[in-house]
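WP5 quarterly update. Target: CAP-Gly domain-containing protein. Source organism: Urochloa decumbens. Length: 246 aa.
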Amino acid sequence: MASSKLHLPADDSVLLLVTHSNLSTFAADIRVSPQQTTVEALKDKLWRKTGTAVASMRLQLRDDTGAKVADLEDDAAPLAAYGPYNGYRIHVVDLDPSSLTSGGWLEDTSLVDKYKMSDEAYDKLDTNFRKFKEKMAPKDSASSQDDKQQSEKQMEELCSKIKVGDRCEVEPGAKRGTVKFVGKAEALGRGFWVGVQYDEPLGKHDGMVKGIRFFECPQGHGAIVRPEKVKVGDYPERDPFEEEEI
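Structure tokens (predicted):
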């Protein structure tokens, strides 16, 4: 059955699942911009995640049912040329029989000789990871809390300069529109958010997200983004003919 997922706008990223021919239990997510990421650049990202050399890598694009959509054969082509959808899968085929990932030993720990140390002997060590973790846990917790509070404070300061009705430009893509919502939205995550009605159908909804109505706008014109993505000011609606030659 064909996928019912919708294309994301060209200037937005897509979230893809990554699987590997030699690693049956391996699965990872990768977020990329199809227009800005070439197949070669994608291979470089996947080499860092899987250990398969770029020269030994063949990539397949598969849909959310597992059916193959295309072989990504042109390294210079942008990923967008193959029509990826949000939720699709990149399957890495390792062509090197002597690859680090071949033979199953990266997954089957029974193939690896092990040195075992009793808990008593481990605890007697002057330094070990367990002691280090226990020592650092309170600091990490406090640091994480401080970072969250600092981030929310910065977002609140940015939002204080943004008002409903302001004209704005949103990155990435310099998309123009009108501010329709400013504030917290716990259903979307911690901190502050800005709702925008784009002039063009570059959004993802009509102002309703996860069953909650934040604002109203035509379908496909709505977006809710973090305040650091929004610049308010003199951003009139673009004339679609202004760049055409006379």
